[in-house]
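Our platform keeps sequence and structure together, in a single record for each protein. Such a record has a labelled line for the sequence and another for the backbone structure tokens. The tokens are whole numbers drawn from a learned vocabulary of local backbone shapes. The remainder of this section carries one protein's record, kept here as part of the documentation:
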Amino acid sequence: MRVLVIDDQPEALKQIEKAIASAKDTRGEPFEVVTEADHKAALRLLDKERFEVVVTDMYMGPDEDEGLTILHELTDKSPITIVLTAYPSIPNCVMSMRAGAWDYLEKVPEDGSDAYENLLRSIREAIRHRQKDPEAGTSRADTLWVHEHMGDLMKAYPGEVIAVLDQQVVDHDPSFAELEERLKQEFPLAKPAMISIPDTRVDTVG
């Protein structure tokens, strides 16, 4: 399971990476951790690659509004986004949750608990929740995107079933059942939209 960690402090980034990489996911497999020190670079990475979990600090730009805009983008691109901050506050917590964050955690918990244990617990709870309810990871925008691009899709995938996630075709197959089985393995925490593309080609005899 892939995790993207974003933090502009090199030492913090290293410690978070180490804590997650040394743990295992709910299937008993090690996490694959990728780190990024810049939020905008992280957004560009998320446009190219998919991560099941994003762990991010709250430093996201010169002002609060930009930070919340970036957090909205992060939550749109990942099934699970967890905020880990050194400067916790109730207003920021409320705004983060409204922006779609799964959890809001302190880097130095006031109750004396271990921040990394808290983080790993939150990641596992989020994963279990998503596995029980994969529809929660489905973007309504994906179905709309298919309808808007049906002409091009009919040319590219005539007669096939396509799987669309984050407004991209992530897989396709003539068989619905075989495609569905692959998707369960490839995307355990999100459910791509599966849509049958009609074949309107007409055979011609020359």
In short: DSSP finds eight helices and eight strands in the chain.
